[in-house]
């Protein structure tokens, strides 16, 4: 038997964690955070609309990331999302 | 002292026998490794690797690496250096490279998350190249040199295991890239007419390490020219592809690795390193209309959006983004290493 060490090391503290998703979407505000990838806004706004139809949620504003998909959102963008959303749709797409 | 007291932040694994097959099985079962044979990171080997960095704290966090936010302690780095096949004397190079990757301007989270085939090029500069046995000469990009091969691999293994850059959940690269296995080169400072690269970026050190997040090398050759422009026009041609991220991200850097013969011809005409960068900035260009037709989304400097369609726009927005160093041996082949884009190279003095 040979003892070897794990190559992974410990996990540090992420700079932010997601809030738990609401259990019921009725009356909740859905916001799209657009990362600027081609067609990302089109796809996510469509999903937001379908989700609102099915649940009674409200589609709110779309917030566009100025820096694109390669960098984190600006604090002002996150503030805008935080102020206007109960549920955020975002993602990376090509 | 019990092992758990010696190494409080590391999990241990008992495998039935030290054989390549047993190690393969143990690592595959956990989703670890890069698919190549590994050296078992036993306590003795890891201790020897750590000893090469003096009496520093093995639990010092050298960097916290996205997307997993793994703590790259000296010990965790040492485990991966053993796995890669490094000799202990190369541990400071691996540690310095990982420290560089932890700098915010590298944007490691983006580097690991992107669908682009970006990998990490580690360049070793100065006295360390010869003293530690790195290859900056013939065949510098490989294969055949253990220091180049295993240090580049150790950096990748740290990214896989500590950063969590596992293809799929932690690395979205559409096709991957061969240089994601290993990508390390020595600078051929002996043949460089401009001295060591590190001093050109303000690092006043005898030895240094650069990390650059980019593509595989793109070769260009010129067997016949005896003046700089004709050689560098071929480099400019290699840099002017709509298929690379530099075409739509103007802040992206290019690394240009000139072979000694090309460098000698260019310097012999009185050109400084900065002249090479300035010339390539001027010559690696395409009409603005061509960029506009190719990309709906362009991460450009504001002025670049304003020019007329027939204006020749540069592939990068500053001559300072064209980084020139010398690598290789006899022959007239050089290469360009484009960037992922939203990342900056980092050069640090090699830790003593």
Question: How would you sum up this structure, described in words?
Answer:
The complex is a heterodimer of chains A (94) and B (352). With 94 residues, chain A is α/β, with parallel strands linked by helices. Chain A contains 2 helices and 4 strands, in the order E-E-H-E-H-E. A 3-stranded parallel β-sheet of chain A has the order 3-2-4, with helices on both faces. In chain A, strand 2, helix 1 and strand 3 form a beta-alpha-beta unit. The relative contact order of chain A is 0.26. The mean pLDDT of chain A is 88. The longest helix of chain B has 16 residues. Chain B is globular, with a radius of gyration of 21 Å. Chain B is an alpha+beta fold. Helices cover 34% and strands 18% of the residues of chain B. Chain B is built from 14 helices and 13 strands. At the A-B interface, strand 1 of A face strand 1, strand 3, helix 4 and helix 6 of B. Strand 1 of chain A pairs antiparallel with strand 1 of chain B.
Total beta-strand segments of chain A? 4
Neighbour order of strands in the largest sheet of chain A:
3-2-4
Measure the end-to-end span of chain A. 48 Å
Trace the largest sheet of chain B across and list its strands.
Answer: 5-4-6-13
| Biggest chain pair interface | A-B, 23 and 50 residues
Q: Low-confidence spans of chain B: pLDDT under 50, at least 5 residues?
A: 1-9
Number of helical segments of chain A?
A: 2
Globally, the shape of chain B reads globular
In whole angstroms, the N-to-C terminal distance of chain B is 29 Å
Compute the CA-based radius of gyration of chain B: 21 Å
Global morphology of chain A: elongated
Compute the number of helices of chain B. 14
The averaged pLDDT of chain B comes out at: 94
Elements of chain B, N to C (H/E): HEHHEEHHHEHHEHEEHEHHEHHEEEE
Counting copies of identical and different chains, the oligomeric state is: heterodimer
Helix content of chain A: 25-40%
> Structural class given helices, strands, pairing of chain B?
alpha+beta
Order of SSEs of chain A: EEHEHE
């Amino acid at each position: 038997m040979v003892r070897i060490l794990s190559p992974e090391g410990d996990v540090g503290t992420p700079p932010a964690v997601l809030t738990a998703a609401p259990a019921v979407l009725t009356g909740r505000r859905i916001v799209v955070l657009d990362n600027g990838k081609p067609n990302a806004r089109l796809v996510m706004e469509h999903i937001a609309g379908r989700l609102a139809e099915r649940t009674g949620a409200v589609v709110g504003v779309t917030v566009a990331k100025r820096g694109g998909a390669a960098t984190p959102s600006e604090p002002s963008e996150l503030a805008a999302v935080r102020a206007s959303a109960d549920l955020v749709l975002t993602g990376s797409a090509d | 002292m019990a092992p758990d007291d010696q190494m409080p932040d590391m999990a241990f694994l008992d495998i039935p026998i030290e054989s390549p097959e047993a190690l393969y099985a143990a690592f595959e079962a956990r989703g670890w490794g890069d698919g190549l044979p590994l050296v078992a990171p036993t306590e003795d080997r890891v201790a020897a690797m750590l000893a090469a960095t003096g009496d520093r704290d093995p639990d010092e966090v050298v960097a916290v690496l996205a997307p997993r936010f793994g703590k790259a302690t000296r010990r965790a780095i040492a485990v991966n250096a053993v796995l890669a096949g490094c000799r202990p004397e190369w541990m400071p190079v691996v540690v310095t490279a990982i420290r560089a990757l932890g700098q915010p301007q590298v944007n490691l989270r983006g580097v690991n998350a992107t669908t682009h085939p970006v990998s990490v090029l580690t360049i070793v500069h100065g006295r360390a190249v010869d003293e530690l046995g790195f290859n900056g000469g013939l065949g510098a990009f490989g294969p055949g040199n253990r220091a180049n091969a295993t240090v580049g691999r150790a950096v990748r293994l740290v990214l896989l295991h500590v950063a969590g850059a596992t293809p799929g959940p932690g690395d979205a690269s559409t096709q991957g890239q061969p240089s994601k296995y290993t990508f390390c080169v020595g600078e051929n400072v002996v043949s460089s007419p401009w001295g060591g690269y590190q001093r050109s970026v303000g690092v006043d050190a005898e030895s240094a390490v650069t990390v650059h997040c980019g593509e595989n090398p793109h070769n260009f050759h010129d067997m016949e020219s005896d003046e700089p422009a004709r050689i560098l026009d071929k480099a400019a041609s290699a840099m002017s592809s709509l298929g690379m991220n530099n075409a739509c991200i103007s802040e992206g850097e290019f690394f240009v690795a000139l072979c000694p013969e090309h460098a000698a011809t260019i310097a012999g005409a009185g050109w400084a390193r900065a002249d090479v960068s300035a010339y390539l900035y001027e010559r690696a260009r395409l009409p603005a209309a061509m960029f506009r037709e190719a990309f709906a989304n362009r991460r450009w400097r504001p002025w670049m959006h304003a020019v007329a369609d027939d204006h020749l726009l540069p592939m990068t927005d500053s001559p300072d983004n064209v980084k020139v160093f010398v690598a290789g041996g006899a022959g007239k082949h050089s290469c360009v290493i484009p960037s992922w884009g939203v990342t900056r190279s980092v050069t640090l003095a090699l830790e003593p």
